[in-house]
Amino acid sequence: MFLDPPAYLASLQNNIRQRPIPWDGAVRSGIITDDQLSRIRAVDRAKKPDTKQAIVEDDVPAYASLFAGQAGRPSILESAAKQPAMLQYLLVLLSDLISCSTVFAKSLLDSDDPYRSLRPLLSHSTTPDDPIRLLTSTVLTGIIGATRDSSQATVQVLSDLLPYLSEQVRGSDASKQDIAVQQLSHVLSTPGLRSQFWGLREDTVKPMIDILGSAAGLGSQSSSASLWSGTNNQRPTGPDGQVDSGVGIELLYHVLFAVWQLSFDAKKIGDDLNDEYDIVILYSQLLKVSPKEKISRVIIATLRNLLENNEKTLLPTAVLARLPTVLGNLAGRHYADQELLEDLGVLQELLEEYTRTKTTFDEYVAEVNTGHLRWSPPHRNAMFWAENARKILEYERGELPRKISEIMAKPWDQDKAVLAIACNDIGCLVKEVPEKRHQLEKLGLKRRIMELMGDTDENVKWESLRALGAWLKYSFEG
C-alpha cells in the first residue's frame, strides 16, 4: 500500500518555487553568506531529483550545516526567519532535498539539537493564509518518514507537531485535512513513535475516527449508537468522488491507511481501540458502503490485524456486528487484489471457527462488553436467565453487573432501547438470584431503575417498572 502526494501541497510548493527571491540583496544585507548562496544555487539549478541528490551527497556535512546549523552558527532558516518569502522558498527546497536523499535526511539528525531551526516555525503564525507551519510540518514529517527516527529529539518535536496536525484534521478545509492525515502516516511509519501517537490519541486518533464516523453515516454524532441500533441509512457514494456523507474518497482512504498503520500495534492497543472507538462495528459498516476496492482492501487488512491479535475479545464483538454476513457478501464480488482476497479468507476462517464453538453466554458477555445493548435473543429467553443469571453475577468477580451499571448511567438520548434492555436484564437477575440483589444495589442499579420510571420513553418506563416489581417482591418476602 502507498499514498500519492497531496495535490494541494504540490500546487503550493510549485507556486513558491516559481517566485523570484532577491538572493544577491540578501547577501549584501548580511542575511545569508556567499557560501550559503552558492550551495543554494547549486541545488536550485538542478531540475532533476537525481542531480539534486548527487550534488547534496557530494558534500552532505555542508548541506546539513546549511539547514540545521552548527554550535554557535545559525542555520539559513534561522537567518531568514524574518523574510517570509525567502523562508517559504527554503522550506520547499529542504523538502525537495529530503525526498531525494535519505542520506541527507539522516545527516540532519546528527547535531545535538537537530530540530532547533524548525520547531519554532510550528508556531510562526496562526493566520490561515500563512503557509509556514504547513511547510514546516511537511519538512518534519519528511525527515521522520525518510529516517524512521525515534530518538529523544524526534519524540520531543512531536509534542509540538502532533497538536498542529490534529488542528488541521479537525478543521473544515478538506485539502489541509488530507495533507495532515498523510503527514500523520509518516509518523506512524516509524514503529518507535506509535506508542507516543496512541498516548496522544485524543489529538491523533479521535479526529480521524470522527471522519470515519461521518463516512459511515454517523454525521456529527460522537457515538456509534445508530450503528448498533441499525438506524443509519448511509448510501454508498455521492457526487464528485465522495461517499454520500460528503467525505472525499481520497481523504477516507488516507485516514483508513493511517489506522491500518496503527493496527500493527494491535496486540497492545486493539482492545482499547475497540472499547473507546467501537472500531469493529464502525469498520463493518464502512465495508457495507465502501465505494472502491482499495478502500475495502485497507479496511479488511486492518480488521485482520485487530482480530488475529485479539481473538478472545474482538471475535465476539465482530459476530455481534454481523461481520460474518458482511464478509460473506464481499466474497461474492470479483476482486483483483490478491492480498485483499487472502485477508478476507483469513477473517472468514477466524469467524467461522469462533461461531462453531461460542455459547449463548459468550454472546451475552460480548454484547455487554461492547457497551451497547440490543434486543438480541438472550434478553427475552427465560431459559437463558435460569441457566446463566448466577454465572453473569459471578463472571470476573462481578464485571458484567458493573458494566451494565456503566451503560445505565448514560442518557442514551439517541437509542433509548439500551436503557429498556438494561432494565429487563436487571429484573431477570433479581428474579433468578434474589439473594444477590444487594450486590446490584451497591452498584446503584435499584436507584437508577427508580429514576428511569420517570423517563419519557414508554418502553423504558415499562421495563423499569417490571424490574422494580421483581425487586420489591423479594424485598417484602425477605
TrEMBL record:
Cited Pfam families: V-ATPase_H_C, V-ATPase_H_N
Highest rank taxon of the organism: Eukaryota
Keyword Ion transport: yes
Record has Ion transport as a keyword: yes
Keywords of this entry: Hydrogen ion transport, Ion transport, Transport
Gene3D superfamilies assigned to the protein according to its UniProt record, in alphabetical order: Leucine-rich Repeat Variant (1.25.10.10), V-type ATPase, subunit H, C-terminal domain (1.25.40.150)
This protein's GO CC annotations: fungal-type vacuole membrane; vacuolar proton-transporting V-type ATPase, V1 domain
GO molecular function: proton-transporting ATPase activity, rotational mechanism
Similarity section: Belongs to the V-ATPase H subunit family.
Function: Subunit of the V1 complex of vacuolar(H+)-ATPase (V-ATPase), a multisubunit enzyme composed of a peripheral complex (V1) that hydrolyzes ATP and a membrane integral complex (V0) that translocates protons. V-ATPase is responsible for acidifying and maintaining the pH of intracellular compartments.
PANTHER family in the record: V-TYPE PROTON ATPASE SUBUNIT H (PTHR10698:SF0)
Name assigned to this protein: V-type proton ATPase subunit H
The species this protein was found in: Cephalotrichum gorgonifer
Taxonomic classification: Eukaryota, Fungi, Dikarya, Ascomycota, Pezizomycotina
